[in-house]
Amino acid sequence: MRSNPHFKAYIALGAVCFFWGTTYLGIRMALETFPPAMLMGVRYTISGAILLGAAFASKAHIPSGRDLLRTALFGVIIIGLGTGCLAFAETMIPSGLAALFVTTSPFWLIGIEALVPGGDRLHGPTIAGMLIGLFGTFLLVAPSAIQNGAGGPVLKAFLLLQLGCCGWSAGSILQRWHQTKAHPVVSGAVQQLATGVVFLIPALTLKTEPLRWSARGTGAIIYLVIFGSIIGYSAYIYVLSALPVSMISIYNYINPLIAVLLGWLIYREQIGPRELIAMGVIFIGVAIVKRQSGGVKRNEPPASTAENLTADSEPLRRISSPAGNRG
């Protein structure tokens, strides 16, 4: 009996679905020890340095000059804004709720791409899917906004996460058109290291809340470095080259479910009928947007660009599998 030729790819996809779903809880635990800026700086400086060290050891091509600067800048926009906003938002709201807010990423990616010269314009079914998804987020945000007003933590965190989603999507579009000879893992290593350094500067120079050392918080950041940034990222790179996009896209639905479940198990984060209904509505909206976008022929970037994009900035022709998680 012949073994499934995609067996390893399915294992890697399972790793992406699970590990990236756990990063929301990992961030909340790490915040018990590290303030958000320090968390981002330590996490990505370590993971970027490890990946770049491996690249040097294997004699892989390392970006230089303008290529290096642009790759680093796009990393700060994508990871710095995307995951950075998530880290700060989790100081205000539960990790499971943050995961649900991040599911709006495809709407930002589609909307921003429609504004780019030569990009696909929005059409009826896509707009309908976005409106359905936004109604789901309204179900999540409205009660707290009505009760606490504009200064409430849920509304603040929601707006902050939408800024993160916007940065993640805009940076992905910029990276899409960036021509580089570097392997995607190497580009990702540069982006992670650049993000870490950018966050370490204010974390070390500005007066912030002190570190509150705990075994759980320290273990969480080690977990994020290994399983979120290195293993999860590498597994995602692998499945992109081995499996159909329609199969890969399932992680966008599994990650929030894992985040919500773990948040309830570890921190007893409250998830009631309203949250579950809102999650279902958002998933329906995302599915409609993905279905409509997947059937549209998109303008392609030059071949050298399309073949060397980082996993965090998968081409918009693969919009059915945007990097919706901040792993």
Biggest sheet features: none
Radius of gyration: 19 Å
Distance between the termini: 37 Å
Helix content: over 70%
Computed structural class: mainly alpha
Whole-number mean pLDDT: 83
Strand portion? under 5%
**Run of helices and strands:** HHHHHHHHHHHHH
Ranges where pLDDT stays below 50 over 5 or more residues in a row are: 295-325
SS field, number of helical segments? 13
The total domain count is: 1
Give the overall shape. globular
Number of strands: 0
Can you characterise this structure?
The protein has about 325 residues and is mainly alpha-helical. The protein has one domain. It is built from 13 helices and no strands. α6 packs antiparallel against α7 and α6 runs antiparallel to α12 (about 275-295). It is globular. It starts with 6 loop residues before the first helix and ends in a 21-residue tail after the last helix. The relative contact order is 0.23.
Structural topology:
Layout: H1 7-30, H2 36-57, H3 65-89, H4 95-102, H5 105-115, H6 124-148, H7 153-176, H8 184-205, H9 215-242, H10 245-248, H11 251-267, H12 273-294, H13 303-306
Helix pairs in contact: 1-4, 1-9, 1-11, 2-3, 2-8, 2-9, 3-7, 3-8, 4-11, 5-7, 6-7, 6-12
Give structural attributes.
disordered C terminus; single chain; 0% strand; mainly alpha; 72% helix; 327 residues
Brief characterization of the structure:
With 327 residues, the protein is mainly α. It has helices at 7-30, 36-57, 65-89, 95-102, 105-115, 124-148, 153-176, 184-205, 215-242, 245-248, 251-267, 273-294, 303-306.
